[in-house]
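ENTRY TYPE: paired fold submission
RECORD: A
CONTENT: sequence, then structure tokens
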Amino acid sequence: MTPLILFGVALVLSALIYPAAIGRLARARMGQQIREEGPSAHQAKAGTPTAGGLVFLLLALVLYLVADRSITGAFVVIALFLGGALGFLDDFAAVRGGRNLGLRARQKIVIQLVTGAVLGWLALRWGLTNQLVPFDGQRAIGGWIILIAALAVAAGSNAFNLTDGSDGLAAGTGAVTFGALALIAVLQHRPGVGLMPAVLAGVLVGFLFYNLFPARLFMGDTGSLALGTAMVAVAITTGFLWYLPLLALVFVVETVSVIAQVASFKLTGKRVIRMSPLHNHFIVAGWRETPLALWFWTGSLVAAVLALVLARPGPGA
């Protein structure tokens, strides 16, 4: 089965499954808790079912078992479930605690670093250390993959999580990124490596039917931490890890906006933008969420094209 066909299958299945998932999560009282520090317009979203990312995990596992069963596919599924498990614990703690806090930041970062190190160790054991180095071609990075993967997972999963704060924004941006990674695998003449990113791109497009404004369902940390971890895993399997910051530029910009905001406020007492992450700046300024999502998707598409042009991931990659 080709990545394109699997993309279509994942899209259709997710679009069909989500109505039932929305009802089930609502009955389980998995309602989103909204941060008081966020945009005031978001308070109306309180109670919207969250943890919709559970469907990502379910469909990815089923389609992997049916259509993939490769080592690279297993690597991505393992990453997805490790990130999803942490995210579900966070969602469950936040919902049961009645406030949008969940696990402590230090707890999450430690678990993310350990998760990344485990994935790096698996990559080393399974021979997934060959990466495209900018302006230097493909190189094996050996045991360094453990440290690099640990840092990349911590950064990538948190970046995806920060971006997931406006209806449709993270899902559409993630779909573009995973779609680009699937295309990279095809350009490398390794379509099997592109199956799982194609599945995740398809699932995200199906999810968008229910996540565009006004969202009927949120992916929650279950989805965002799972997808951020899986994004790094796919970058490793395609040898595109060094180019991931460019490919995932929207996620990087969102993260940098938070870092700059915190640093500026602590050092000078002033804010560089109205509210971080960056998408909240535009929401507070009066932007509607659907046009905002479209602009962020466009930025993600431009970054993906630029990464493909610079890396030129052909059959020799």
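RECORD: B
CONTENT: sequence, then structure tokens
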Amino acid sequence: MTNTLHGARILVTRPAAQAANLCRLIEHAGGVSWRFPTIEISASQPDQSVLLIAQHCDWLIFTSTNAVDFAIKAFNGKMPGFNGSPRIAAVGQATAQALTDAGWQVDCVPVSEFSSEGLLAEAALQDINANHCLIVRGVGGRDKLEQGLRSRGATVSYLEVYRRHQPASDNQALEQALTDNALDAITMTSVEALQNLLAMLSSPAQALLKTLPLIVASERIGASAGQFGFKQIVVSPKPTDAEILETLTTLFNGENSGRRN
């Protein structure tokens, strides 16, 4: 075991089913992980007509690993279409890996910026006039990708295969930890997760929370965190667990190149 985190106590807010790897990395690096899921994921039954669209569209675009996991169930494990159609795009490397693990070929994934903006910058999605794109996502996701694709002449539909909820969690232990100064940093991978975390705490606990370093997975989350009143915001270069760990390591070893103030 390395000791690059020097016993730092890190609040991990990922959904319960997705927290294990980041917690394992934190603990292997000599930190202490505190799990407090701020988003709960459940299946959403997609409209059957949209499932039929998936068989004839030009692009299936997956926005997260959750989209992959729940789409597999919606498709009964079989990719719609045949002979290379539809083509498949993934918003990031983790999503692409989940598709590959499921036996699906990925035709487009951002090289560096794992976001809607990064995907829209890819060459494969520039000349898509008259293409039909089906975005596979959770209910109520961002519209940035849809807007970008429509501006290029594509027809866009949504296949919404899961829902996000605020968990009904007991916050007593977390509030006590904040009162006792028993946490050193927070990790956050979405604006919705951050909003839920604040909603799950009392006003005094929120005030204490906002004094801690907040490691976020994108500039967009960082901007929202600043609006919510967080004072120490550090942006991870990429939203992967490995990059979040690297950002934590940098933070707790006296470097602050990724810090926002």
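NOTES ON RECORD B: The first strand starts at residue 9 and ends at 12. The domain at 42-164 is CATH 3.40.50.10090 (Rossmann fold).
STATUS: closed
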